[in-house]
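hey so u asked for the seq, here:
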Amino acid sequence: MMIFGFSLYDIALYFLVYSCLGWCAEVAYAAVTTGQLVNRGFLNGPVCPIYGFGMVALLLLLAPVRHSLLLTFLGGVLIPSAIELVGGWALYRIYHTRWWDYSDAPFNLGGYICLEFSLIWGLGALFVLRIIHPILAGFLHLMPENIGWIIMLVLYLLYLADLIFTAFTAADLARDLDTLETVADGLRELSDAMTRMVGTKAMDADQRMDEGRLQFKLAKAELRDAAKKYSAREAAATARAMAEEAIRTARQAGEDARLSASEAANAARLAALGTVERTTDQLRLEQLKNELEIRSEEMQAHLHKHSFFGPGRLLRAFPKMRHGARNISLDTLREALRRRK
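ran it, structure tokens below
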């Protein structure tokens, strides 16, 4: 069976080879621009599927116009850009994460593609199709086809296993980033509520506050040890539930604080209700804040634990990823969690 002059064997072989060469190009680009040797692929193995799809599409669709430099260049601009756009959008819909983002680049489309890299794809397509591919194709066809099928079968099985493993890993990472975003929101709400309550807390409650804080310090080490016993999924579920409770509590406390402040003229009522209730509320907020800090620390440690496999590798591979409906960068999220104290 032939498709635009290429057999199924050719298509399967070129997809695999260019997926690997694309990965090599990504690693080399990252090494030159950042000075670090990092696995830049979405998968764990030395492959980038988007390059495989891109080159196969170029070979098939540009075969009729391969003798025209201009049409080859234009096809090299449009076809890879379309694949990058669809791939980026699909990954965002699945994981709510932008694995790459061109929002800061001029003439970008939704942050998924930009003019600068589209032109680079065009020049790259000319170079590869005119110079690299003819040499590479001749070399690859020196291998007997039956041996090639056997080798590709093994490699494609590994490819599929890697894809399945990475899909679950990326889903776990998206879940943890969602949770950390909720935790950061909870910590911000708690800090704001505690700040509002300072002006309404009676002065003679200071001793009660100090006693409560001492108990928190003693309990904090026990809570941290207990948190380490959770699995990653349990830790995320616990942290998210706690953050949501913290947000509800902080907002209620903030409403109470504003109500008390608006009734400041009623000194007798504040004297009766302010001391014990305000102190109890603020101690509860501080307790929630301490617990959320511990959950945040544990989750961040888990995310960065594995630098070669798991979420930690994806974070290293895509340091400029943005997550969630608010399009929050990793640096912004880390800063929000750092400001908790």
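The first strand starts at residue 2 and ends at 3. Residues 176-338 form one domain.
lmk if thats what u needed
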